[in-house]
Design goal:
The complex is a heterotrimer of chains A (156), B (329) and C (511). Chain A is mostly helical and 156 residues long. Chain A has helices at residues 2-26, 38-64, 80-100, 102-117, 123-144. Chain A folds into 2 domains: 2-74; 80-144, no CATH class. In chain A, 71% of the residues lie in helices and 0% in strands. Chain B has 329 residues and is of the alpha/beta class. Chain B has a 6-stranded mixed sheet with strand order 2-1-3-10-4-11, with helices on both faces. A 5-stranded mixed sheet of chain B has the order 7-6-8-5-9, with helices on both faces. Chain B is globular. Chain C has 511 residues and is an all-alpha fold. In chain C, 75% of the residues lie in helices and 1% in strands. The chains are: A mainly alpha (156), B alpha/beta (329), C mainly alpha (511). Chains in contact: A-B, A-C, B-C. At the A-C interface, helix 1, helix 2, helix 3, helix 4 and helix 5 of A face helix 8, helix 9, helix 19, helix 20 and helix 21 of C.
Chain lengths: 156, 329, 511
Amino acid sequence: MAKRDITAGFLFILLGLFVGSMSLKLGYMSEYGPGPGFMPFWLAVILIGCSIAIIIPAFKSLRQGTSEPVAKDLLLFTNPFAVFVALGSLFLVALLLESAGFVIAAAIAITLYTRLVKPDYHWIRSAAFGLVSSIIIYGLFNYVLGVNLPRGVLPL
Amino acid sequence: MRCKKLAALAAVVALVAVSAFSLAGCSSTEQAKYPTKPIEFVVHSGAGGAPDLFVRTVSDILTKQKLITVPITVTNKPGGGGSVAFKYVASKAADPYTLLGTPSVFTTQAIISPKDSPNYTEFTPIGLLCIEPIAVVVKADSPYKTMNDLIEVGKTKPEGVTWALTSLGSYDHIMALSISEMTKAKIVFLPNSSDGEAVVQVMSGNADCVSINPRGVMGQVQAGTLRILAVSTAQRVSGVDAPTMKESGLDIATGGPRGIVAPKNIPADAKQLLVEDMKKLVETEQWKNYLKETYAVPANLFDADFGQYLKQESERVEPLIKQAGLIRQ
Amino acid sequence: MMVFDNLLMGFGHALTPEILLYTGLGTILGTAIGVLPGLGPSATIGLLLPITFGMNPLAAMAMLCGIYYGAQYGGSTTSILLNMPGESASVVTCLDGHQMAKKGRGGQALGIAAIGSFAAGIVGTFLLLMLGEPLSRAAMAFGPAEYTILMALGLCMATSFGGHQVKAVIMCILGLLIGTIGTDSFSGVNRFTFDTSYLQMGLDLVPVLMGLFAMSEIVSEIEQGIMTNPEMLAVSTKLRNLLPNLDDLKQSFGPILRGSVGGFLIAVLPGIGATATSFMSYALERKVSKHPEKFGTGTIEGVAGPETANNAASIGAMVPLFTLGIPGTATAAILAGGMMMYGLIPGPLLFRDHPDFIYGLICTMFLGNVMLVLLNLPLISLWIKMLKIPLHFLYPVVIGIIIVGGYSVNFDPLDLVVIGVFGLFGYLADKSGFPTAPLILGFFLGPAVEANIRKALIVGRGDMMIFFQRPISLVLMTLIVLVLVGPTVVGYIRRKMFPSAAAVNLRDVER
């Protein structure tokens, strides 16, 4: 766990340095008091301070060997493929939503998720479930609740 | 096995296609007189705000009075300070089935961020229906009785007048900028993110005055806790007991315009019909009622007159916005 | 008493079949949109508003208000069941509510949320009736300086939710930083937009929420290969076994009482809103609790307090609208627009000129809350049944709804990318002990805090003394100092005076 704290701390320090340097370009002060860069600058300073406050004890415990091992359910990326597909499917939907339409985009995402949760589920069944549920969601939101979802290529 | 899968897939696709077509009905009729298919009426902000109410009222009247016989769907395309909706409608060039309700930011957004927002030349002007006045409001127990009192303080006191705005770059901001320019009074602006927030600044004594649509303050004005010093429109506003800016000695006649535009290059017959419909719409009882409830004043500029208006407004506000340093590169 | 005469008259107007029908309709609709993420009460009321013109104003407003407070009842449902807050006010409900659901106590969590919301509705409506006018006058004494300090207090409280305090501060700072993305409302300068027009308006709360909470939870469960939840399957769906028992009610009494009064009072200030109140309530309950270490593991007080507070806040936000015509929230602004269109001008004269309308409306709020609790308690067994759906059907459908909810905020597909990015971030943060709730409050309050600091300094023409000169700001400042430094000082004194008890107290302080 200590190693991860150190990694996170350094990443946040980098972020803080980046934000801090950008904020100074925005204008630290204006006519009356703080300008647009004032708040981001001080936030960056506090961020860096807090990150150091996390890194130091983590280093200490690492050196003394008192760092707890990471619990089993807190391990990162034990199944990177699942994480990648689960989050990547949202990017795919974003890409397809307005060109292909909601029904097709959502059907693909739902199908992928069905297979992700239960990898041995038959893919035709998954696809059928995806299509039917995405049509039902489309009908509910578009016609009953009045949310205009993109029609896309399907003449719904 | 492969064949079976494909067959199943084909069956599903066919089923969807059939049900879809039956839902769509007969959408492919002969090219007849405009309009033959549903019209999409775009609002630049979310459902429920004043711009949304305007578009929904207009489309309701058009439908109820049978001025437009095809269904009108109102779609909200918020985001980008309006530019999302403006860009969307501008992209539909030559399509008379997309209309846009034009708020005041229709003029200002194109000047503030020219990279993201198309300007009025990308659209076909249909009609300017009404102008929403801007009222300058102070607390009832404040020493300011007229616009002149306020300006006098701005000229004499070194700290100037604290002026609450509904938002930065809004029409009320532009009006205050031109007052400051005309009278050389020192005005310090206090930007807010909503009408309610702006009124609170005056109520709590943190701002001397607020420039706002009268709708947001009428309850308190009638109860005698707030006072309207002047309204911005050329004529007095019915239901509001306050002089105009001109009567107060300031050469200002402005307000938030509410109009309707279509994309560029739409067919002449479609434009003609839309303009005629708008002319009929402004005569209806329901429209007159809308004007009364929203304290708006009729404008009734159609077609090329509206185009001329948009041009003049853009030319008028551009130097003010530039001067306030609001233009983004 | 005048008020009771008016109340009697109000019930006379409210207890007609027409009004009751519309109140019921509004509450049902409100519950539904509260449950469906991405559909907020403001959009729904906006869509329905034009349809109601020409209706009896009381019936129309009874329905629209029913949607407004009904949505708060439904809002907790997805937070508890799926760790998916539909809006920012039910974020804190996730912390203990979802843990309860995971332990098979989802019914009790939903039950106490409904009961707390009901209590908040009744207490809030009563306070609105009795103290509305003087309270809203008092609220008008709050200017930018006071708002700044009050919000800073809220942020401080949000970082003391238990767990690693420094990590909580980091997350809160990140939230504040995300809140600065977009066009600065004071100078028109673009901050951290990287020349994209998408970022100019800033990120929206809903996609961030969906990513940080629902997506990260789903992704993490998928990764672990969880296909069913055995504890949830074992739960009986008999309503009798699902409702909170006497012990639960006893434990929740204090949180509900504090939540309903406190939430109402804070929300009377226009612009503070239900989100901050729910966070403050959670922090408060944890502070006064005898077992603060149990917070975050599924304790019922952690649901009762915030859920009551956010509902009381939705009633409290009506106070400035009805009494001064100043809407405190976006939804209240739409209601104000509606009232204008019915020819009723919200403001101080409403109670004098249209007593039949306003007292009638307040009475429908009493009745609506009764209907809501009668509607929501039986629904619990339906929700629990939903949890028994195999996850390979439940999660994909939830994803479909997340897509609709995320997209329909701005009708921009890029919001879905934001969900994905925050899903990944939430996944990493959850597993590394960084709490995500403070980020949401930072993000939600950040722009307002910054705006109020700058407004205060504009009003004071650059003089920092504005934060100390005004009496209310001085009082609030003292309060902050007490909250921040108080526990340490008290601990120090105790240690000096009772050295033997030092060890115990030290642990208290560290928590």
